[in-house]
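FAQ: What does a ligand-bound record look like?

Like this one, built around zinc ion:
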Amino acid sequence: MKRALLIVGAVLVVLFGVFFATVGSAFVGLKEAADGPVAPGVQLVRDGYVNVFFIDVEGGVAMIDCGNDPEAKAVLAALKARSLDASAVKAIFLTHGHPDHTAGCSRFTAPVYAFEGDKGIAEGTVPANGPLPKMMGVQKGKTTKVTNLLVEGATVTVGNEAITAWNIPGHTQGSAAYLARGVLFFGDSAAGQSDGKLRPAPWVFSDDLDQCKASLTSLAAKVPAGVTRLAFAHSGFLEGADALSSFGK
Ligand SMILES: [Zn+2]
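The answer part, i.e. the structure of the complex:
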């Protein structure tokens, strides 16, 4: 009996070890993210382990994702530091529907943009498909409402700023990349490594890693010249666009 318990215990220890090593490895070797400017008119706001971005627009900001905090404390504090409040957020662009990017959305009344493929995940009506997100099931009690569906390659104008969206399925089916003020935003579909290279989404959180890689390769051919920075949801940004154009080569 005692021996059986020891074996069960050992198996559990190994399983937990593999689990934490798998999840942890998704974040090892990434460039560290810090609050502050990413490019002229683009600010990174760190909400725990996830990044939210402000894009300056006429009369306020457009926001890339809403962060992990249902009260959006870090985001509201960053607005306050600029003598702004929640009403200064003119539009929200979701990179995808996972809860750590959407939890704060209900604190704002701005229109919420996303691709159709992630509307249900963002609104908590369907579960996400990645190995780990699937285990967590439908994110019940979510109050995010996607008000505007994005069109592939189309540009949305917020105030005086143009924000272009591309669907890059793989991390989730509705994952988006956005280009605004020369910065290309990837959400979780990629991360910046400390060696300057682009890393695709971690498979354990993703629908389909091969699809994600193919999306990144085809995105490189779609974005216009003039990208100055690559920005990610869980790492620091990368300078220039070389890490994208050389991805997979
Ligand atoms: Zn995600």
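Follow-up question: can I read anything off the structure? Yes, for example: Helices lie at 2-25, 73-80, 99-102, 119-123, 131-136, 209-222, 242-245.
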